[in-house]
């Protein structure tokens, strides 16, 4: 089987990581894959903020969980109230993805870049997980979010949307995805 297809088929969300740091060279390759993603009208509307500082990741996790405690969705509330859940799964690095404001199909373009990050990480033997929950923190104006945004130095005109965590897998995830048969239609 072709190596690219093999990496796509083997990729799973990783939620347990070792404390080993991601090599800078690997991180550079992953980011190169991200910026070479397709984008609507070649807008390249993304900004990537790489965070290795565990205290910042903890601060974001705690603040987002606090907001999530009042979320209308019961599953989100349960996650927010779980004292053992760290929204970044204590991974050694997180890439925060922000999207340029008022760009046509910007979020779709950022999603394509995120997929490239996930596949590139898999190809390098790293685990990864797409993290959306933290968006709750920045979706509303509040003093804690404003303070954290200043630390993150996200450029003006960009809005944080989601994150990807990366690291060395604590164990191999071997479960197979159960495919939904109704998700594909062939017309011949």
Q: Tell me the structural class.
A: alpha+beta
> What fraction, in percent, of the residue positions are helical?
25-40%
Query: At the third CATH level, what is the topology name?
Result: NADH Oxidase
Radius of gyration: 17 Å
Uncertain segments are none
Q: If helices are DSSP runs of H or I spanning 4 or more residues, what is the number of helices?
A: 7
- CATH architecture term: 3-Layer(aba) Sandwich
* Mean residue pLDDT: 93
| Residue fraction in strands | 15-25%
Largest sheet: 4 strands, antiparallel
Number of strands: 4
Strand order of the largest sheet: 1-2-4-3
Assembly state here?
single chain
Describe the structure.
This protein is of the alpha+beta class and about 190 residues long. The chain has one domain (about 5-185): NADH Oxidase, CATH 3.40.109. It is about 40% helix and about 15% strand. It has seven helices and four strands; from the N terminus they run H-H-E-H-H-E-H-E-H-H-E. The chain has helices at about 5-10, 25-35, 55-70, 75-80, 105-125, 135-140, 145-150, and strands at about 45-50, 95-100, 125-130, 160-165. Strands 1-2-4-3 form a four-stranded antiparallel beta sheet. Helix 2 runs antiparallel to helix 5. The two termini are about 25 Å apart.
